[in-house]
Predict the structure.
Amino acid sequence: MTSEPPIRQLLAPNPSPLTGKGTNTWIIGATDLVVIDPGPDDPKHLAAILDAVGPDQRIGQIVVTHAHLDHSALAPRLAAATGAPVHAFGGAKAGRSPRMARLAASLASQGEGLDLAFAPDSLLANGDALHGPDWSLDVLHTPGHLGGHVCLALGNILFSGDHVMGWSTTIVSPPDGDMADYMASLDRLAAGHWHRLLPGHGDTVADPAARLADLAAHRRQREAQILRALEQGAAAVPELTRRVYRDTPDHLLPAAERNVLAHLIDLEARNLVMASPDLRSDAVFSRQ
């Protein structure tokens, strides 16, 4: 690939407090196109994607960064309309860390947005590559937000899905998400030399190094806040969340609680907190 291929962005009409202005669908290529993250199962968005295909163009491949409904649900209908295969790491529970798999029954998964029906035509692994006449995408497995999350590198441009977004931090909700994995994936991305990040939600990230550093610093700060909050006394997740997220609107507190739980699970694994009677969603946590 000697020059950057055409890259187009289509915004799905699914704005919300958790998706920002909506889901970004990315179309790459001049003739043989690849679509990244078709988006939610919305006929208007399907029509917009198909209308974006010119007379000398075809959608040859579809890639899903992770199996959340706002990214993957339209994939079957787009595949049926175009004949293109769907590539992804796996289904909604693929890539779940061994620890989360063991804890799944006790963590009361909320299943936020999981596309449990999603089944790709082919499975991607870290280090794989997808190719078109004028583009090549390298697959980076970046678990954290979801065990099967992948980012896709087009040279020094990274399609970062929900791992790094332009408008907000990323929700990590156990057992589908894993904070230790999320931080390790952040470190891995920070070792790259990216020109810009094209996320699943929000605007283009023009300074990837600064954004990645800010996200890591934010998580470390949140971890420190949780530990300080526990100095006020042992507490369950809802109370701890209210101690830490003091200015968060009530309708966003459930998502905040899942982030707090993700941090607590990571802290417990590092012997910094204890869970009583055992590690579960409704445990009472205290400093070790």
Summary: Residues 7-206 form a domain with the Metallo-beta-lactamase; Chain A fold (CATH 3.60.15.10). The chain is about 30% helix and 20% strand.
